[in-house]
Amino acid sequence: MVLFRRNIAGTDEVRELIASLKHLFDGPAFFAIDQEGGPVQRLAEPGCEGFVKVPAMRTLERRSASDVETLGRLMGEQLASVGFNLSFAPVLDVDTNPANPIIGVRAFSPDPQRVGELGVAYANGLAAAGILSCGKHFPGHGDTVIDSHLGLPRLPHDRARLDAVELVPFAMAHAALPTMMTAHILFEAIDPELPVTFSPHVIPPLLRDNLGYDGLVFSDDLEMKAVFDHFSPTEMAAGLVRADVDVALVCRDLTFAHRVGVALASADEADPTTARRARRRIATALAQIPTAQTSPPLAQSHRELTELIAHG
Questions:
Q1: 143, 220, 221, 244: which is the annotated catalytic residue?
Q2: pLDDT tens-digit series, residues 9-38
Q3: Could you give the 3-state DSSP secondary structure of residue 253?
Q4: What is the pTM of this model?
Q5: Which domains does the chain have, with CATH numbers?
Q6: Is 220 annotated as catalytic?
Q7: If you compute the radius of gyration of the chain from its CA atoms, what whole number of angstroms results?
Q8: What is the pLDDT of residue 294?
Q9: Contacts of 5 by beta carbon, 8 Å cutoff, 6+ apart
C-alpha cells in the first residue's frame, strides 16, 4: 500500500487511515510513502502537523555521515508514529547531469562515493527507527535529460561507465538496503530494446549476480509514461518476470492495476520458480518490520529534526 499527498488530509487522518487499512490484511503488509525530503516529501507542515519540512538531500552533501544517519532515524520515527513501515528512500542516483529535470537536488552528490556513503548512513537511520529503506533508481537515473514520468529516457552508457559511476553507490549500499526500486531507463549499450524494469540484461546480471543482491526489488510506477506509453499490461508482466522484479507498483488507476495483476498471475503460472522467489523475498522483507512499532512522540522528533537541520 503506497500513500501519496492526495490520500492524506492531515497527521491524525493518515494515522487513522493506516490503522484501518491494516485490518484488511491477515498478516503484515507494506505501508509505504515517498518521504525523501526536499521536492519529494508527502508529509510536511503545514498540511501535516508535526512533520518537519526537510531540505533536499543535496544540502546534506557536506554533513557528516553521522548527521545523515540521525536525520534518517528521525524521519523514520516520524513515519513510524503514524504507521508507515517503508520509505522509498534513499535516492542513490549520482547527479552527473545539471540538465536532469527529475533528480538534481534529490541526489546527495555528483560524487558516487559520497552518494554511497550518505545513502548507507540514511538507510541505517531508517532501520534504527524500524522503517524499511528502498535504494533507487537502479542502476542510476542521474544522467538523464528526460523525466521518466513523461517519457522514456535513453542513455548510451556501457558496463564500464556504469561500474565507474552509476553502480558505485549501489555497490556500497546494497547490504544496508532491504529493498530497491528500478529506473525506467533504456541503456542502449546493454539492452537496446527494453528499459531496465523489463530487461533480463540489467537487474539479473548487474544487481543479482554481480552485487549478490537477493533483497526485494520494486518496479517504479508502471503508470509513468516511460513504460505506460510503450507496453501493454501483458508485456509489462512478462518483462517484470524476465527482469527478476518482485513487486509491480501501480499507484493511481485501480482498473490498470487489476489488468497488470491478472497479467502477472498468468506470467507467474508460466514461470512458477520466479514467482516463488518473489514471494520469498516479500516474506523476508516483511519479517524485518517490527511486530510492534514504537516511536517517540511526534513532537520530540519534530524538535530534534528542527535542531539538526538548523545546525547545518
A1: 220
A2: 999 999 999 999 999 998 899 999 999 999
A3: coil
A4: 0.96
A5: 2-310 (3.20.20.300)
A6: yes
A7: 18
A8: 76
A9: 42, 47
